[in-house]
Amino acid sequence: MFKASSHPFLVPDDNSFKLKKADTDPGKNAPDEETCEQRLAECVAEIAELQQVLYAHDRYSLLLIFQAMDAAGKDGTIRAVLSGVNPAGCHVTSFKVPSSEELDHDFLWRTARHLPERGRIGVFNRSYYEEVLVVRVHPEFLGAQRLPNGVNNKNFWQWRYESIREHEQHLARNGTVILKFFLNVSKDEQRRRFLSRLEEPEKHWKFSEKDVAERAHWDKYQQAYEEALNETSRPWAPWYAIPADNKDFMRLTVAEIIRDTLKSLDLSYPKPDPEALARFDDMRAMLKDKSKPVQN
């Protein structure tokens, strides 16, 4: 079963993560924009090659989960990091407000339907973690779920974390490699990005009044994220808290983690058995000799 290696932005599994101490900006030591872009391009090319081997190897799938406050850069990061991957081997699913059909099932059902097959990369832009993030901040949303025992039990949120941990461990045991990215944007940077959406006409479509209203709940969201990451970051399903104020650095860091994870799986192209290899010489000879038809 996959286990995450040490990394500066890896959220530990000992309940010691403090969001206030986590960087939102990498600081002056980060590579400059040109260097980030160059290294990202190299990384994207490597990921594309590794995805081909992942597909042929057909033993693992890769699930990438992105969670963040609004305007942190989830869409742009997904697009930048996976731009070179064969579309046939990658699928992105964005989860919005649950439908009536989804609300008639348990909270993991709607995402389970979109899990990647072996050999493929699946991307969740938001995920079942919304159930312990936005729903934690707005527990009134639980009314639509019509839960038989209600939400008054003191263990309710712990049960949800437990369900998530068990779900992810089950997936990991069966070959799904899970990487979870929390893009950690600061409140000031979010404000600047919202203003940019208002001031640039080509970004107006991105702006939502609801996003601004949610800023009033910033502290509650921070508490919800801190608890969720502590409760669910495990070696087989790690969380990475990536500084998101610098988009170039953020995208490069995410790409490097994905690349290094794929490399750690020791993927390889499958080798034909000796009998098939012996027939390859015959097939090669037939293909070279135009006078002889190739037999099935």
Task: Classify the secondary structure makeup into a structural class.
Answer: alpha/beta
Uncertain stretches: none
Mean pLDDT over all positions: 94
Largest sheet data: 5 strands, parallel
Strand content: 5-15%
Count of discrete domains: 1
Shape, principal axes of CA atoms: globular
Give an account of the 3D structure.
- Helix content is 44%, strand content 11%.
- The protein has 296 residues and is α/β, with parallel strands linked by helices.
- It has a single domain (19-288), classed as P-loop containing nucleotide triphosphate hydrolases (Rossmann fold, 3-Layer(aba) Sandwich).
- The protein has a 5-stranded parallel beta sheet, with helices on both faces.
- The longest helix has 25 residues, at 33-57.
- The chain is globular.
What's the short story on this structure?
The chain has 296 residues and is of the alpha/beta class.
What are its keywords?
296 residues, alpha/beta, Rossmann fold, 5-stranded parallel β-sheet, 11 helices, 44% helix, 11% strand, globular
Write the layout of secondary structure elements.
Blueprint: H1 33-57, E1 61-68, H2 74-81, E2 90-94, H3 100-103, H4 109-112, E3 121-125, H5 134-137, H6 156-173, E4 176-184, H7 187-199, H8 209-214, H9 218-232, E5 239-243, H10 247-264, H11 274-288
Parallel strand pairs: 1-3, 1-4, 2-3, 4-5
Helix pairs in contact: 1-10, 2-10
